[in-house]
Specification:
The chain has helices at about 10-30, 35-50, 60-70, 85-95, 110-120, 140-150, 200-210, 230-240, 245-260, 295-305, 320-325, 335-340, 355-374; strands at about 50-55, 75-80, 95-100, 125-130, 150-155, 165, 170, 175-180, 195, 270, 275-280, 285-290, 345. With about 375 residues, the protein is of the alpha/beta class. It has 2 domains: about 10-100 and about 110-240, Aspartate Aminotransferase, domain 2 (3-Layer(aba) Sandwich); about 245-374, Aspartate Aminotransferase, domain 1 (Alpha-Beta Complex), CATH 3.90.1150. Strand 4 (about 125-130), helix 6 and strand 5 (about 150-155) form a beta-alpha-beta unit. Helix 1 (about 10-30) packs antiparallel against helix 8 and helix 3 crosses helix 4 (about 85-95). The model has no long low-confidence stretch (mean pLDDT about 100). The structure holds pyridoxal-5'-phosphate. Pyridoxal-5'-phosphate binds next to helix 3 and helix 4.
Length: about 375
């Protein structure tokens, strides 16, 4: 049996509806800048209760556009070291310098105290990442601090479609929320991204920047790129959005199966989701005991049982060769991230995971842990 770590889901009726829409796109000849992008944007804004949603080619573009809005000019942007490299990369693309902050061991998100320590006169703002789909529980504290210091707060919501804290959606706490629709994500448009905001100027700028910086009169008024989401991608995204609540319910159900199955497995500690949160469960991370080697365990799971493991994230950004060579970051800079992430393993989580799969994964895990403990 092969159980993939992540897998996009399209029901039969969804495939039929998408194919109908793609036929309409192709026969209309309007492959970009048409009604599907507009509808997807309108529905995504409505879903998140924000004024504006601007569709772009990927989350990294949404991040760069948001950063460019604040005009970095070499200033620093604080990013958690525990994120995908796209987050700090976007700061460099936008002309700033990424400065890493430590991770909170309980949430895998940014350590807010370390973030505060890293703020200097050169800091322009911060990007918070809702790791695995849990809204950073200190987001209100972060926002208040940023407001007091005149810093921007961007939310990297690549994992957090529909995730909520106190009934409020991820991406609506800061200046903008940046989503990814990459195939592994909670919902997909094949490739794609979305920027949501209540800031009219930022939304207008985003529309301009995604089209090489051209305004509606086709004059280049700022620096931009080709960051367009095409009509076929928007059609796919629109249908996925219609199913997002169903996807989220299923992901939460799978997580609850894992929670009961793994409650008493020696060597595994579960992460807690506070009461007032809705997790999007992009990933299901668990923490392994120090005596267990995550890489070996992952290898055994895959090779012996066909269970594909994942991680969020190893290595942390500051230990990627590019960042070490360019910014001089090194082993020992962020001891919490370095130590904890070595022990964090993600179990398969997507719409297609069944209760039987979870039971099988439990048996596989117990067997691999026993083998490693010999
Ligand atoms: C936390 C995080 N930020 C940004 C990205 C980049 O997303 P995209 O590939 O849509 O640019 C990803 C994608 O995996 C991610 O996980």
């Amino acid at each position: 049996m092969d159980i993939f770590g992540s897998l996009p889901y399209f029901s039969e009726s969804s495939v039929d509806n998408i194919l109908k829409d793609i036929r309409l796109v192709l026969t209309s000849g309007r492959l970009i800048d048409g009604p599907y992008v507009q509808e997807f944007e309108r529905k995504f804004a409505e879903y998140n209760h924000v004024k504006y949603a601007v569709a772009v080619s990927c989350c990294t573009a949404a991040l760069e556009i948001s950063l460019r809005h604040f005009g970095l000019n070499g200033r620093e942007v604080i990013v958690p070291t525990n994120t995908f490299i796209a987050t700090p990369n976007s700061v460099i693309f936008a002309g700033g310098k990424p400065v890493f902050a430590e991770m909170n061991a309980d949430t895998l998100s940014i350590d807010v105290d370390d973030f505060k320590r890293k703020v200097t006169s050169k800091t322009a703002g911060v990007i918070v990442v809702h790791i695995a789909g849990l809204v950073c529980p200190q987001i209100n504290e972060l926002k208040q601090f940023c407001d007091e210091k005149g810093l921007f707060l961007l939310e990297d919501c690549a994992h957090a479609h529909g995730a909520m804290m106190d009934g409020r959606k991820a991406g609506t706490f800061g200046d903008s929320g940046c989503f990814s629709f990459y195939p592994t994500k909670v919902m997909t448009s094949c490739e794609g991204g979305m920027l949501i905001t209540n800031n009219e100027q930022l939304a207008e700028e985003a529309r301009c920047r995604r089209s090489y910086g051209q305004n509606v009169e086709k004059r280049a008024v700022m620096l931009g790129n080709n960051w367009v989401l095409n009509e076929m991608e928007a059609a796919v995204g629109k249908h996925q959005l219609e199913n997002l609540e169903v996807f989220l319910n299923k992901r939460n159900e799978v997580a609850s199966w894992y929670e009961s199955a793994l409650a008493n497995v020696e060597g595994i500690t579960l992460f807690k989701t506070p009461e007032n949160f809705r997790h999007s469960y992009y990933k299901y991370p668990v923490k392994l005991a120090d005596r267990l080697d995550r890489v070996k365990l992952g290898y055994l799971l895959k090779e012996k049982f066909g269970v594909e493991p994942g991680h969020v994230y190893y290595p942390p950004c500051h230990l990627h060769p590019f960042y070490m060579e360019t910014f001089g970051t090194k082993e020992g800079d962020f001891p919490v991230a370095e130590q904890v992430l070595k022990q964090v393993l993600c179990l398969p989580l997507h719409y297609g995971v069944t209760k039987e799969n979870v039971e099988y994964i439990l048996d596989a895990l117990v067997s691999c842990i026993e083998e490693l403990s010999l």
